[in-house]
Automatic annotation (TrEMBL):
Keyword Plastid attached: no
Residues in HTH arsR-type domain copies: 15-111
Keywords: DNA-binding, Transcription, Transcription regulation
Transmembrane spans: none
The name this protein goes by in its record: Transcriptional regulator, ArsR family
Length: 127
């Protein structure tokens, strides 16, 4: 599914806009965890297995596996078997680079607003 953000892309009933907005929201939910973003960033370096990612990220194997399953379900990563392990790669590395670069640009334009957002920002006092 592609997302055309031009106003002319919406039909008279707005369904195309709703579908595109829903798909974008699903993508952003799939990437809404700091560990999943870290996995995507690390996979930009090349393919890795769960043990490599566990060591690099300092997370439990089960946590990394859970996040990889989510990213695979979203179509962002794929795996291939190598012996008893699986090697994970990005399905569309150029698009991930573009998205992360766009996110960095938008974050630089908004300053601290995103991290200070009362709904989704980073909390200063962990509960």
């Amino acid at each position: 599914m592609t997302m055309d953000l031009t106003p002319a892309s919406a039909g008279t009933d707005g369904l195309d806009e709703q579908v595109a907005s829903r798909a974008a929201a699903c993508l952003f939910r799939g990437m809404s965890d700091v560990s999943r973003v870290a996995i995507l960033r690390h996979l930009l370096l090349g393919e890795h297995n769960v043990a490599d990612l566990t060591q690099h990220l300092g997370l439990a194997q089960s946590t990394v596996s859970k996040h990889l399953a989510c990213l695979r379900d979203c179509g962002l990563v794929e795996s291939r078997p190598v012996g008893r392990a699986s090697m994970f790669t990005l399905t569309h590395p150029e698009a991930v680079i573009d998205l992360l670069a766009a996110a960095e640009r938008l974050l630089s334009l908004t300053g601290d607003a995103v991290t200070l957002c009362p709904n989704y920002g980073a909390r200063k006092d962990p509960a």
